[in-house]
Design a protein that fits this description.
heterodimer, A: mainly beta, 5-stranded antiparallel β-sheet, 11 strands, 0% helix, globular, B: mainly beta, 7-stranded mixed β-sheet, 4-stranded antiparallel β-sheet
Chain lengths: 112, 110
């Protein structure tokens, strides 16, 4: 059974701090990994994708992938109250990004 | 741009009733998907399609059916609604990279 595990949180950080979100996946077949942000009552939106070991940076966001440890993380620098949301980690299988296995999500709260 | 459009946004069904959740996309994406999200949980794949005329089961297909007669449309059918199907349903589509999600349909079965 393919699984993606996340700490459900909530994770609370002060404004301006670094938020660190973690995810592990069970199946080594996975080759693509994604972080989606989901505001309450809204649909998920993609914020980062990563396919190779190492770090990938995009603005205040850094995704990290370690395939040997089957571990994916997302760092959010200079956290803002607008970053408060649930962050879903997903692992991709098959030939399309849409064949995704999602984790339960980590709820992040950034306090002003 | 419309992107992925789902209708209806909300629906209450009685046990045993049937309904179709509509999904259409205007981005000419080959791949389309239906997910359900239960409270406090992640997304679970119900069915997906890699192109018109081709559909396949996902993780939780029981109680649902789909069809894909055109590239644009991917309706999800519930034949005999059960309380266990109370959930939020998301349709999504993609080409090679980013998946775009519809706004969701909140379904309650009573």
């Amino acid at each position: 059974q393919k699984e993606v595990e996340q700490n459900s949180g909530p994770l609370s950080v002060p404004e301006g701090a670094i938020a660190s979100l973690n995810c592990t996946y069970s199946d080594r077949v996975s080759q693509s990994f994604f972080w989606y942000r989901q505001y309450s009552g809204k649909s998920p939106e993609l914020i980062m994708s990563i396919y190779s070991n190492g770090d990938k940076e995009d603005g205040r966001f850094t995704a990290q992938l370690n395939k040997a440890s089957q571990y994916v993380s997302l760092l959010i620098r200079d956290s803002q109250p607008s970053d408060s949301a649930t962050y879903l980690c997903a692992a991709g299988y098959g030939g399309s990004q849409g064949n995704l296995i999602f984790g339960k999500g980590t709820k992040l709260s950034v306090k002003p | 741009n419309a992107g992925v459009t789902q209708t209806p946004k909300f629906r209450i069904l009685k046990i045993g009733q049937s309904m179709t959740l509509q999904c259409t996309q205007d981005m000419n994406h080959n791949y389309m998907y239906w997910y359900r999200q239960d409270p406090g949980m992640g997304l679970k794949l119900i069915y997906y399609s890699v192109g018109a005329g081709i559909t396949d089961k996902g993780e939780v297909p029981n109680g649902y059916n789909v069809s894909r007669s055109t590239t644009e449309d991917f309706p999800l059918r519930l034949e005999l609604a059960a309380p266990s199907q109370t959930s939020v349903y998301f349709c999504a589509s993609n080409a090679d990279t980013e998946a775009f999600f519809g706004q969701g349909t909140r379904l309650t079965v009573v």
